[in-house]
Write a structure and sequence with these properties.
This protein is of the alpha+beta class and about 300 residues long. Helices cover about 60% and strands about 10% of the residues. The longest helix is centred in the middle third of the chain and has 50 residues, at about 135-185.
Length: about 300
């Protein structure tokens, strides 16, 4: 069975060489009741923050998400397109130094070592390389890391959904047991109620018994102990949980938590009405399963 859930926990990273610089983008997310975004970028890429936040907001609805963008000169063999020198400015600086050497009768030709002393005039600064004009070179790296983060969240969500569905099926099985036990115990429960009422009447030494009134009282207490409506509502919640797990949608984690709260409510009522040890055991087991589901649902987006 396929599910449509995403976990709030995930990780994604991407790297690229841009204009001779190594760029690495890391995205990671953990559980959070709401959406919390933190973006860390170098000063040169501060202008990129709004774009990153916009893409995160479109892709993620819950979780604490952290994005870090790092950059450094690409001197590794993996990054060979080192292009931090503006050739036009280098040429201009070289010509000017050579002119000065001739005009002032200095040693010629001008060496590269001498030219390098003036590199501040022809080196391309990181601010220059990473201007907004190069956004089309940077956004794909951010997008790749974000896509990997989302894939990671979906993969983990599939595992959580499978576990939740197994627990959900276990709840459905226990509800079958509760319904069967309740049906089998119906006549015995009525007899126990009637017996207790007659014993109370004898204890208070009431000679005349109004059989009609006694029947009404028996019916009243039997109805108070009836859990058929609770079973029906609990079944409905279990079925809706299965639909949420399969179809997903917005605020899935909140929907799951809502249905689990309702199931806790119904099982608590069943337990309070229980007149049978086996029914009490089944209720305790169901509550344990629901609590496990709530722990897992806390990881769902």
């Amino acid at each position: 069975m396929s599910f449509s859930l995403s976990s709030m926990t995930g990780y994604g990273a991407a790297k690229a060489s841009v204009e001779g610089w190594r760029i690495r983008v890391e995205c990671k997310s953990v559980n959070h009741r709401r959406l919390s975004l933190r973006v860390y970028t170098p000063d040169e890429l501060r202008w990129l923050d709004p774009e990153v936040r916009s893409r995160l907001t479109d892709a993620v609805s819950r979780g604490s998400v952290e994005v870090r963008i790092a950059m450094q000169p690409g001197t590794d063999d993996e990054y060979v397109d080192f292009d931090l020198i503006d050739e036009d400015r280098f040429s201009a600086v070289t010509r000017e130094l050579q002119r000065l050497a001739v005009d002032y009768r200095l040693v010629a030709p001008v060496s590269l070592e001498a030219i390098w002393e003036y590199r501040e005039f022809f080196e391309r600064s990181s601010h220059e390389v990473f201007s907004e004009e190069n956004a089309d070179l940077l956004i794909p790296v951010v997008e790749e890391a974000l896509q990997k983060l989302m894939a990671s969240r979906r993969d983990e969500g599939q595992g959580i959904a499978a576990d939740l569905d197994n627990h959900r099926q276990r709840l459905a099985d226990r509800l079958d047991d509760v319904e069967s036990l309740s049906a089998d115990d119906g006549d015995a429960h009525r007899l126990r109620v009637e017996t207790r009422l007659r014993e109370a009447i004898e204890e208070f030494e009431i000679d005349a018994i109004d059989e009609g009134r006694l029947a009404q009282e028996v019916a009243y207490y039997v109805e108070k102990g009836d859990i058929s409506e609770e079973i029906q509502r609990a079944r409905s919640h279990v079925e809706k949980l299965g639909k949420v797990l399969r179809l997903g949608g917005e605020a899935v984690g909140k929907k799951i938590d809502f249905y689990l709260q309702e199931l806790i409510r119904e099982t608590n009522t069943m337990g309070s009405k229980s007149q049978h040890a086996r029914l009490t055991d089944l209720v305790i087991e169901m509550k344990s399963v629901i609590e496990k589901m709530r722990e897992q649902a806390a990881n769902v987006e």
